[in-house]
Amino acid sequence: MRRRLFSLPLFAALVTANLGAGTIAYQVIDLGGGMDRYVYTVSGFDLLPHQEIDIQFDATMFAGLTNASAPSPFNVELIQPGNPMGAPGHYSAVTDVEVDLTSSSDGPFIVDFTFTGSGSPGSQMYSINQLDTNDLDIENVVSTGSTVPLSVPVPATAGFAALAFGFVLLASRLKWTRVSQH
């Protein structure tokens, strides 16, 4: 019984710490003439060869992705939203060498776009994908998340939160065990 008591908080800590490892923060710049630009800052990722940063563009809110760039050694490819109809667009930055982005990116990741949604452009879904050695097919998804506005403080890893969660579980379990013994 005691072994299970400690394994649940440890498991929760490991799972939660893995989920909060990296951040992609964005800033939106109005270029005029109906065009906008996302400037992304990537931090908290240690990318391996043939890994991809893939940021999705909802086909109901974005059109005309252009002028993509990324720091060296990334190669960038754009897939337009709505091709095929209803499919999201993609900003894909792939590296063939190991890249340590644990503190912050060496340069901005940039893409221009036309925003067709209501309000202002905001957060997007992203994934870090492990590609095959030809950089053609996704072998597995390493991490997923949502981009955050650059003005929002970027959280550190979730290690402290996971540890606190584990202690709360431990304390509640100990209390329940004491109550059931009386």
Structure write-up:
The protein has a 5-stranded mixed sheet with strand order 5-9-2-1-12, with no helix packed on it. A 5-stranded antiparallel sheet has the order 6-7-4-10-11, with no helix packed on it. The protein has a two-stranded antiparallel sheet with strand order 3-8. The two termini are 17 Å apart. It has 2 domains: 1-20 and 157-182; 22-154, Immunoglobulin-like (Sandwich). The chain is an alpha+beta fold. It has helices spanning 2-19, 159-181, and strands at residues 23-32, 35-43, 45-47, 51-57, 62-69, 74-79, 89-95, 99-101, 109-115, 125-131, 138-146, 148-149. Residues 1-20 and 152-179 have low confidence and may be disordered. The radius of gyration is 20 Å and the shape is globular.
Rg is: 20 Å
Average residue-wise pLDDT:
79
First and last CA, distance: 17 Å
Shape: globular
Helical content (DSSP H or I, runs of 4+)? 10-25%
Number of domains: 2
Q: Tell me the name of the CATH class of the largest domain.
A: Mainly Beta
How much of the sequence lies in strands comes to: 35-45%
The DSSP helix count reads: 2
Write the layout of secondary structure elements.
Elements lengths: L1 H18 L3 E10 L2 E9 L1 E3 L3 E7 L4 E8 L4 E6 L9 E7 L3 E3 L7 E7 L9 E7 L6 E9 L1 E2 L9 H23 L1
Parallel strand pairs: 1-12
Antiparallel strand pairs: 1-2, 2-9, 3-8, 4-7, 4-10, 5-9, 6-7, 10-11
Helix pairs in contact: 1-2
